[in-house]
């Protein structure tokens, strides 16, 4: 069976080279006679994998020395609660910018732990754009400002950050490692792995060390305390060892591609080709403000909605998998993360143009 082009938003496609290496090492990692899945998380072997993953991520993102890398479980959805539980202690509020489905979920979860100040929202325009940063309602005495710079469901992305003295906490699940970022501009970055990092099961957290002291260890579960996790090298309990191992292989692969800057150029090319194909057609369209179109998640709709099921059926038969939009918004969505090759995007464009000729 040949491999398909997988446009799933997550769990997403992984680089074939990574899958091949993991397959080769599955039964016997580096001549040790065991799989990574069978290793003690406190063994010398796994500790070397953990150290490698942290070192490679630090190099790829040029993470400053005053930041810690923590691996957690539960996905970014668990982080929606874990972050306010840790970082809002001692503060009366936290600010949240509402730009789509995932920032809304994070905001709702935070209300269980602190008073939420709505910094701004684009709900009134169906989350098709980003609020003007000059109009944001920011409480500069708050614990932090939370952002979701890429809304995976809606296909909206922004790279600039608001001007504020608050620590910026950003959910970069869909964009981490797809473009260079200045980590020092953030108080904390978190990202579910199942998009640009590896398989589901682990969350990457990059947190400024001074924020660790906010963890109220007397009230927090031990496995939730950022301070406790940092002190114990992410191993308060058994970490998701195989997911961390695969993340390390992805980091190695990214380095071999030329790093994040080189990957950004490929991602720009892929996104421009796909959006150009959509814009040059009366058959397809996308509702997102052109200034904030996501490079990673490209939503589009057909002029004739009755053709959607046919489009999905025929695209899957053509080896183009998981193009259905999220159940909450419908339409189509192509997630074109780092592991999606340019050839996959071109194959999608060729199919879309052929489909338009048949049914347009």
TrEMBL record:
Gene that encodes it: serC
GO (cellular component) term, any one: cytoplasm
Protein name in the entry: Phosphoserine aminotransferase
Primary residence: cytoplasm
Pfam family, one: Aminotran_5
Gene Ontology terms describing biological process: L-serine biosynthetic process; pyridoxine biosynthetic process
Record InterPro entries: Aminotrans_V_dom (IPR000192), Pser_aminoTfrase (IPR022278), PyrdxlP-dep_Trfase (IPR015424), PyrdxlP-dep_Trfase_major (IPR015421), PyrdxlP-dep_Trfase_small (IPR015422)
Segments forming domain Aminotransferase class V: 4-348
TM helices/strands, residue ranges: none
């Amino acid at each position: 069976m040949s491999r398909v082009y997988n446009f799933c938003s997550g769990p997403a496609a992984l680089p074939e080279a990574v899958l091949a290496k993991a397959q080769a090492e599955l039964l016997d990692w580096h001549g040790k006679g065991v799989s990574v899945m069978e290793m003690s998380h406190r063994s010398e072997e796994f500790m070397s994998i953990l150290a490698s993953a942290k070192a490679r991520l630090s190099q790829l993102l040029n993470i400053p020395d005053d930041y810690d890398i923590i691996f957690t479980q539960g996905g970014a959805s668990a982080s929606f609660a874990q972050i306010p539980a840790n970082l809002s202690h001692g503060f009366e509020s936290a600010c949240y910018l509402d730009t789509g489905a995932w920032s809304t979920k994070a905001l709702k979860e935070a209300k269980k732990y602190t008073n939420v100040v709505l910094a701004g929202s684009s709900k009134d325009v169906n989350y098709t754009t980003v609020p003007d940063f000059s109009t944001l309602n920011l409480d500069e005495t708050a614990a932090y400002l939370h952002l979701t710079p890429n809304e995976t469901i809606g296909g909206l992305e922004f790279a600039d950050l608001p001007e504020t003295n608050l620590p910026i906490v950003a959910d970069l699940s869909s964009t981490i490692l797809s473009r260079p970022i200045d980590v020092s501009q953030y108080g904390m970055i978190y990202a579910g792995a199942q998009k640009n990092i590896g398989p589901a099961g682990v969350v990457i957290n990059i947190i400024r060390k001074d924020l660790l002291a906010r963890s109220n260890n007397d009230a927090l579960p031990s496995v939730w305390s950022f301070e406790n996790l940092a002190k114990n090298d992410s191993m308060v309990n058994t970490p998701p060892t195989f997911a961390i191992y695969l993340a390390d292989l992805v980091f190695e692969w990214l380095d071999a591609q030329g790093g994040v800057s080189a990957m950004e150029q490929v991602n720009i090319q892929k996104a421009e080709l796909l959006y150009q194909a959509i814009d040059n057609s009366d058959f397809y369209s996308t509702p997102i403000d052109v200034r904030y179109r996501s490079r990673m998640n490209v939503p589009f709709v057909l002029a004739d909605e009755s053709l959607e099921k046919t489009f999905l059926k025929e695209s899957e038969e053509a080896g183009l998998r998981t193009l259905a939009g999220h159940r909450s918004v419908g339409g189509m969505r192509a997630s074109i993360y780092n592991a999606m090759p340019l050839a996959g995007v071109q194959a999608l464009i060729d199919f879309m143009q052929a489909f338009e000729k048949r049914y347009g």
